[in-house]
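Hey, sorry to bother you again with one of my protein questions. I've been staring at a protein lately and its backbone has me curious. I owe you a coffee for this, so here goes:
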Amino acid sequence: MGKTQEFLKRKDINISAKTYFVDAMSGMAQGLFASLLVGTILSTVAKYIGMIDGAFFARFAHFIAKAGTASSAIAGAAIGVGIAAALKAPMLVTACAAAVGYFANAYPGQPYAAGPLGVFIAVIFAVEFGKAVSKETKVDILVTPITSLGIGYLVAYLTCPVIAIAMNWLGEFINYATTMHPFVMGIIISVVVGIILTLPISSAAICASIGIAGIAGGAALAGCCAQMVGFAVASFRENQWGGVVSQGLGTSMLQMPNIVKKPVIWIPATLAAAITGPLATVVFKLECSKVSAGMGTCGLVGPIGCFSDMSASGTLDAKAWIGMAVVCIIAPALLSLAFSEIMRKLGWIKEGDMKL
């Protein structure tokens, strides 16, 4: 047992929940952001540039559209690289992770594909086995890729079909249930996804894996925005404008150390999410899909994704614009501030509890 632990330590293989559900999932989110999410934004930008008269704008729009399509197409490979980097894989193993990720993302094919979750599982096995054999033989250039690719493809072959069907079913169930019961599901989705966003795991990756869309995606967006904007505003007296930028445009995950010490500080943003969720699903009927739904106001990716999806579905009107402003920024700011001030007066939250 001692030799095994020594070998794993030498190979930097740390088998733990943090390694796979925090570090690797963070790498997964980075890969999603750098490919599918950016690709979606570029495609949206290209659409509106193409509306401008002139040959130059037409050519530029075509170029941007091609770049967006290419970025989205290599999402699996980008996720693979992100996970490999998070697991500190050697260069050769990282290259193999890209290949495994590209394969797993689309496997088994239409009408279902495993997507990000399939990539997540297959790449973790490919990377860890690849790290185990890396530089252990004189023919490393053959042994490492054969092992890494072989294990990754085998795991994808065994797991991706089941994952694809399960994730598709779960996504359809959530999307349908939200359509049938928008008020209740709006609360549940907004609160749950918002909490996941603040936890050290990736809400964007989870939303993308499930295939959340439509008004269910709008509820997820509302919950994420409530957490980010909520903490930014509620902690303003401690963190000032630097805290507004780092949490409101960055991530509310920065508050996790404070939440662990005093969980009650999570209440204002979570209550705000419970209110903005139904606002998104019942009142404004905001729509958002996959990665964007789980990003919140991080780089304003969530609102941009909402704009893109509603524009594509032909539902982008004045009410939608007002809804995005209210649900993503105004309501979570005012509600979280009100709840936090009440709790401060009651003594439940004290000065410095939310100091970054």
Notes: The two ends are 41 Å apart (CA to CA). Strands lie at 108-109, 112-113. Residues 181-345 form one domain. DSSP finds 16 helices and two strands in the chain.
